[in-house]
Amino acid sequence: MKNTLVSTIAPLDTSLPATQLPSKVAAISVASLSSLNTETFPYELLQARNYHGDEILATSGEQWWGLFITDAGFELLPTTITVNTIRDPFVDLEEGELTGKEVVTDNDSLSVFLVKGPDFLEAGTVKTVFSGAATIPNSQPQTGRLSSLSLIFDVDEASKIPIHHRV
Predict the structure, then answer these.
(1) What sign does the dihedral 103-84-88-57 (CA atoms) show?
(2) What's the DSSP call for residue 24?
(3) N or C: which end of the chain has fewer CB within 10 A?
(4) Is the pTM of this model over 0.70?
């Protein structure tokens, strides 16, 4: 299976030669929509970062797929997450309060995002195309929230598969 990711912050540059993109693809778009539910959209999207305690339901020991920035480029790899309880500087006003959550992976490489649920994914290098200023430098961590993402998969494997982003 060809794993392909398109991160859309600006419209995709369609002037790219057609030979650089897979011949058969299906697009998937994800936005920060709190109205989505797991019955309609059974997939979860997450970033390895700090959260307010009520922002995520993920728990330590869960298996996720991560898009990681590695020496080989971008790789889709299975990973186990750990959710640590931490001090939330905006909410924890009393001494000893720990209501925040920190999501970390068991992979030392920088993760772009984590996804849980799809059973068609395979580990391997991911061909990437970025539009606008969406490139994430290898040397700088991604600290902002993931608010919009489009994924493109080979049609034979994943035609029109919804992904749920919990916020």
Answers:
(1) positive
(2) S
(3) N
(4) no
